Amino acid sequence: MALKPASQAFIAAGVVGGMLALTFASKPLYDTFCRVTGFGGTTRVATEAPDRVLERTINVRFDANVSDAPIQFRPSQVNFDVALGVHSLASYEVVNNSDQDISVIASYNVTPHTAGRYFNKLECFCFEERVLKAGERKTLPVVFFVSPDLDDDPLMDSASTITLSYTFYQTDNFEGATKSAQLLNTVAQP
Question: Facing residues of 167 across strands?
């Protein structure tokens, strides 16, 4: 039995509407997936350090990049060893070289990408958009730990270094950056 033209049009409109809805939902769903699983080197946000501390250490290397902003950005330290489960403090320095105030936000990831699910931030300058005054210099802290669960993952047996990388972008009052950071803070972590 053939469908009537009106039924065909209704089904086609439903398929197009469903595809359109999936298109709008794909970015937030993908971002949430990455934050929860650590996929693609996306780090996790934690509210407290773990109870378990191991003797195994991993070297954390710090990387800083700037995209399209008149600033200097660098890590205050090149690298240091961290025992699994111990919370650590690192810092970065940013300088606004322009004669105008600018809004910036940092994106981040870790490599190897499989380490993303084990790298947890307790506090980070990357959680919010910030305004840098003309000529201003700031020290930006990040408090983190590498989960002791990394030691239970056979894929991470040979891992000896994790690189934490940030890239600062000028936001030009782009509210999406702030909303993304707020969403990041609301994702529950195990």
Answer: 65, 107
